Automatic annotation (TrEMBL):
Organism: Halopenitus malekzadehii
Annotated Hydroxymethylglutaryl-coenzyme A synthase C-terminal domain residues: 195-411
GO terms classed as biological process: acetyl-CoA metabolic process; farnesyl diphosphate biosynthetic process, mevalonate pathway
The keyword Transferase belongs to this UniProt entry's keyword annotation: yes
GO molecular function: hydroxymethylglutaryl-CoA synthase activity
Keyword Nucleotide-binding: no
Protein name from the UniProt record: Hydroxymethylglutaryl-CoA synthase
A Pfam family it matches: HMG_CoA_synt_C
């Protein structure tokens, strides 16, 4: 069977940054270490006044098409995953295609366009749709363009304000891909939950602590479902485990739960038993409370073992690099985690030896659904990852003062109309220019 997977990735960060420990925490009267150590965040990205989900998505897509030398008629499908859409009917993919058609000869007239919604898991779902379309033989040799783009803003004063971010990840899904092949096998954990939602409102209603519990429960179910197909996942068979990263502290928790799960009934559990005992089994306890207390004690002990810390340092920590400096990109977040992992492999000097290695990818969307699948690294991975210019983009972000941050938040609040000067100068990119006669948002390409 021909491999299908991700052939190219381009990332576009919002062009502004907020320094969380040094600018945000002092104004909130909080300890900076809540951000650096607790949540695991240094800075978050914000869109300048002329940026939004369309410009960031279109700019990422343009970089991707240019780098791969692709013409519009070589793209058979454009799917945008977002939870920041401003239009209940016309999909963001049409706005992005319209932008791209301003600068390319040819058009996307015969491409199937759509928009995927299921909170942060929809980027992965859009990749699934592309995979299925190619596997079904409906692509006529063409590639699918998947764009995960979000402006993750919370109401001012909401606890989620600490974890904001903005950016887009564009991915090309093809046969015989250069970066990773996707597994056919997938596991799901899905339940009707009320942890994070936006019922006809721009900023989310969030039960933050509940969303963390739901994340862990649905991920566990997805892992069990995945293992029911492929058999038990063994820690040493996974090079990296990129998970959805609303903030790195969430993944620190998820990593520990995952390790407990995948080491149960293994020689690793046996080896650790001398120092921390065996994992508690529910049948050995008289009540659910007693069992949960024992689990909690075991987890604390497991966290302190060298064995766990080594696994975490190799398999999880490298997936958090970009998230730490950009914040939550909702639909793009797990795709940043994959990219961070591959960047780590490139920095470690891995090349051919990394081909064939496996990533265990865990996506999550509130509401709620988790999905787990695996990806196998392909021979062209390193060249693709080294072509990214995300370090230059991050280094050139404008560093906001707290007052400027409050202005930027208002500029992107649909209920407010404020006039704020742009902080950066557009240069060879799509920009938001205003509203058209039917209240549609309008865009231009600035040379
Ligand atoms: N030094 C070190 N760590 C500190 C600290 C300090 N001075 N102060 C706080 N922390 C730690 C806390 O112990 C906590 O870590 P823990 O959960 O491991 O105990 C972490 O920093 C966050 O602090 P907390 O007080 O829990 O933050 P909060 O109540 O302001 O909100 C969220 C945190 C995640 C609930 C909030 O940001 C949110 O609602 N986010 C949006 C929803 C979300 O992202 N959900 C995730 C699933 S998708």
């Amino acid at each position: 069977m021909t491999a299908v997977g991700i052939d190219a990735i381009e990332i576009r960060t919002g062009k502004l940054q907020l320094d969380l420990p040094n600018t945000f925490a002092p104004k909130k009267g909080e300890d900076p270490e809540k951000y650096t150590k607790g949540l695991g965040l240094e800075t978050s990205s914000f869109p300048d006044v002329y940026e939004d989900i369309v410009t960031m998505g279109a700019n990422a897509a343009k970089s991707l098409l240019d780098r791969k030398g692709l013409a519009p008629d070589e793209i058979g499908r454009i799917d945008v995953a977002t939870e920041s859409a401003f239009d209940h009917s016309k999909p963001v993919s049409t706005y992005i295609a319209g932008c791209l058609e301003q600068v390319y000869d040819g058009d996307f007239r015969h491409a199937n366009k759509g928009e995927r919604k299921f909170a942060c898991v929809s980027g992965t779902q859009a990749i699934d749709d592309a995979y299925n379309w190619i596997r079904a033989g409906r692509n006529r040799g063409r590639a699918a363009l998947v764009i995960a783009t979000d402006t993750a803003l919370y109401e001012r004063g909401d606890p989620g304000e600490a974890t904001q971010g903005a950016g887009a990840v564009a991915m090309l899904v093809t046969e015989d891909p250069s970066i990773v092949e996707l597994s056919t096998e997938q596991g799901y954990g899905s339940m009707d939950e009320t942890d994070f939602l936006k019922p006809n409102q721009q900023f989310p209603s969030v039960d933050g602590k509940r969303s963390m519990q739901v994340y862990l429960s649905r991920m566990r179910e997805a892992l069990e479902d995945y293992e029911s197909i492929v058999g038990p996942v063994e820690p040493d068979t996974v090079a990296y485990a990129p998970f959805h990263t609303p903030f790195p502290g969430m993944v620190r928790k998820a990593g520990l739960f995952a390790y407990r799960h995948i080491t149960r009934n293994t020689s690793i559990e046996d080896e650790l038993a001398d120092s921390i005992g065996r994992q508690p089994r529910e049948d050995d306890y008289g009540s659910r409370e007693a069992y949960e207390e024992a689990i909690s004690e075991y987890m604390d002990a497991l966290k302190g073992t060298d064995r766990y810390q080594d696994w975490y340092a190799e398999t999880i920590e490298p997936t958090l690099g970009l998230s730490r400096v950009v914040g939550n990109w909702y639909t793009g977040s797990v795709h940043l985690a994959r990219t961070s992992a591959l960047r780590d492999a490139a920095e470690r000097g891995l090349d051919d030896a990394f081909v064939g290695e496996r990533l265990l990818v865990g996506s999550y969307g509130s509401g709620a659904q988790a999905e787990i699948h695996s990806e196998t690294v392909r021979p062209g991975w390193r060249e693709e990852i080294e072509a990214l210019d995300i370090d230059e983009q991050l280094a050139s972000r404008y560093d906001l003062s707290f007052e400027e941050y409050t202005q930027v938040h208002e500029v992107h609040d649909y209920d407010k109309s404020v006039d704020v000067e742009e902080f950066t100068v557009p240069d060879g990119e799509f920009v938001f220019t205003g509203w058209g006669r039917m209240n549609e948002r309008t865009y231009d390409y600035v040379e």
